[in-house]
Amino acid sequence: MEKTGSDLLSLWFADGTNFPGQSNFRKRKQWMEKALAEVYDALPNATRMLIEYKFFEPAFYHTDLPDWGTAYLMATKLGEKAQVLIDLGHHPQSTNIEFIVAYLIDEGKLGGFHFNCRKYADDDLTVGSINPQELFLIYTELVAAELDPNTETDIAYMIDQSHNLKPKVEASIQSVCNLQKAYAKALLVDREALAAAQDAADLVEAESILQRAYETDVNPLLEQVRLEMGRDPHPLAAYRKSGYYEKISAARVGGESQGWA
Amino acid sequence: MEKTGSDLLSLWFADGTNFPGQSNFRKRKQWMEKALAEVYDALPNATRMLIEYKFFEPAFYHTDLPDWGTAYLMATKLGEKAQVLIDLGHHPQSTNIEFIVAYLIDEGKLGGFHFNCRKYADDDLTVGSINPQELFLIYTELVAAELDPNTETDIAYMIDQSHNLKPKVEASIQSVCNLQKAYAKALLVDREALAAAQDAADLVEAESILQRAYETDVNPLLEQVRLEMGRDPHPLAAYRKSGYYEKISAARVGGESQGWA
Amino acid sequence: MEKTGSDLLSLWFADGTNFPGQSNFRKRKQWMEKALAEVYDALPNATRMLIEYKFFEPAFYHTDLPDWGTAYLMATKLGEKAQVLIDLGHHPQSTNIEFIVAYLIDEGKLGGFHFNCRKYADDDLTVGSINPQELFLIYTELVAAELDPNTETDIAYMIDQSHNLKPKVEASIQSVCNLQKAYAKALLVDREALAAAQDAADLVEAESILQRAYETDVNPLLEQVRLEMGRDPHPLAAYRKSGYYEKISAARVGGESQGWA
Amino acid sequence: MEKTGSDLLSLWFADGTNFPGQSNFRKRKQWMEKALAEVYDALPNATRMLIEYKFFEPAFYHTDLPDWGTAYLMATKLGEKAQVLIDLGHHPQSTNIEFIVAYLIDEGKLGGFHFNCRKYADDDLTVGSINPQELFLIYTELVAAELDPNTETDIAYMIDQSHNLKPKVEASIQSVCNLQKAYAKALLVDREALAAAQDAADLVEAESILQRAYETDVNPLLEQVRLEMGRDPHPLAAYRKSGYYEKISAARVGGESQGWA
User: Fold this and answer.
1) Per-residue pLDDT tens over the stretch B163-188
2) Is B95 on the interface with A (CB under 8 A)?
3) For the sheet containing B82-87, what is the strand order?
């Protein structure tokens, strides 16, 4: 970290077992605690350790850090410099991720995100491609924390996708634009009205306030922001016009592949 | 608790929300912490508080304590007298429950069980009726803790089922017998050989050791134990022969219903 | 049906079993076929039978018609007057429902919908409250069928929800408005451009075309349509202003409950 | 098929899409129908086509044949020589596979199996390693069909696993032994008593009959059968003693890997 100037040690462990009996859960837990403590003690000043969890795969019977609870437990035992990293594709189906976001923020333990998207398992699709409402609800929690003077967060935002059908740069541009949309919509939420509706237990109104923000077309706003920043308002079209893809494809030995092969 | 002579305060909260925006996650978390702390401070001496979690239902958007991580976090903040209670039907599909059991034992935070069974959600079927291997693997962790001189556990075992098709007493007898079988099989695991196979990374042998125990027919053993205790070796048959069901059915106004109606 | 003037026989069967061995799957299948055939033969002219499926609950081991495949098989054996009904909450997690919609339309076997919404199981929430993109994608298939001169559909649209926290009429207004939004957005999809992008295997463009329609704020359009129809452009606000709820609550013995209690 | 002397054309299609809008569901369905019909018409006499389905992966938005219903629909349109192949790892969580087995047998459309095991998704673990009761319940349906003089089946049994941690031959021996155990236990089910309990709606007794068979330790029986066939009664131990693994490892360039690398 010192050599590269990094201030984040981001750890994901593929460790786990494939069959009942293969290994001793409690020993493995203790080994993990010990190993992390050794690394934690060696962290340079002003750096953080982010601990990622994943429900399953590549291990198919158990994973050593399968959920936010295990990552949180480790991070809490280690100390203030250790936090939890959320990858959007690493949960059981129908897990309420925005709740975990809020929970970890409340504990000062949300350290970062691996953004991506999935319909089934750890599909690593373009962020925002499936169920974009979920991304908006996650950002609604992130913006709430930003707006709260009593909450401090320092969250590392990363994109972690695996595109084998889409051209990678185009998919990355889509991802960034979808994140900007979710963020912009979350900024539009009328927080005072929301708090009032919640206090009044007016479910319909509270939900409607979120819907109004979510249903707003924020593309014109984002285009204006990009213009004011001296950027092209339409990133994907600009990229396509740039001819960059054709240029690097031609330069690449063996032609145009940008995927796995 | 003092009046009834109870030494366990077992808490399950149906609390949660049904729609995005309905309530403030972080406020609810803080309310929960505060409420539990107030109750915790009032616990009589030599008693414990068990905190149960549930993935969903009756709340359909978020549940305040949806997983072991939230229950653990609460129990840890409260202190030594607070522990986690595991209900077998309260997890997302394919959760490795025996891993959670081992994890909580290792933290001294496993306080109790609600035994039941499910194929889909919180089905509350007869314990051991679906996937009895899972029950065996859970008991394998419980027995490992019993055998370890450095591990102290004090686990409250409860059955929490909802039978509307089977006669309730018969279903309860089945449940108890299935628990006895799982426990007996877990006692048969050759722990030394298992540890040796694990140390040698011999996956096939380690798995086979568990299988040998699981595949043993422990019914003759259990019948012998019951005989030595002066009990009928076949509890279900004995109950059926006893005529108890017919007696209480006749005594019940409106006939033989033992189900929901 | 003749007495009530109904032309739709909509069937949902709670039938199934709770435990392995409880019943014979194949006998039950044959009984179902026979029973449905008897009813089918008695259908009045110009009527249809809609067969609904459900993954689980109230049966917890197996359900006699758990998926579209079983309902389709029954409907196909019966004949042209039998079709399948889709309830949005009756699928395993992450099932691609819009694909089933397209499949059944292609077979002439989509007969109707029970609209509702869920995050977990058959939660019966306000339609469109969770993952509204899914509703849009379903309507995208429905509109494609409407636009295709070679496709005939006759689909019965029903709302099937269970509101115990929200006032029921308000929740129903929300549901209808959310359905209108999904339909309006699906009408905005540029079908020619979509087909061209699909033919060119331009995934990014094809996805973007759907996103442009989905991200359009159709509320102003819907308000205009309502005005042109002589309706209040804001149905929920209009209902709240109407005082209807207060009136019927006052008229109801025991006060204002509109929920389960 | 003629050249190799094969009488089974076993088809699994990885086809599907990763993003909404990527392709046209109905066109793809029609293409699939057309393509399969062309192949079906070219099938040699006395051969069969087996159509496999898979819920997801490698496609992450939709799969062209995601469930038994789609495979059944294709097979039915094609004709008698087309049947469905079930891979145990290709279903949504908690799907009742034994019900699908019974359903397809009843339709004369069960053509074959890919045996393997999973806890999460298509994990391709050793068959019988997780939830062996499910395998027993599947065999209970298979044996019921064998015993029924009015049912004809011709089922191709295949093992389809992917072992990267266990030595492959050992894992295959385990798989075969686990299949033999499931089959032997299913043969032990008292079919007459089961039918009687089912007719009497005695759920507890019906379930107990299956449990008695499942809990029987069939290892001694299988050892005796192997002895009578002139085989070693303990296949795994015999293989380990044979030195075959050491021999082929030594013969392999670069040493002992039997896994992915």
Assistant:
1) 889 999 999 999 999 999 999 999 99
2) yes
3) B8-11, B48-52, B82-87, B110-115, B156-159
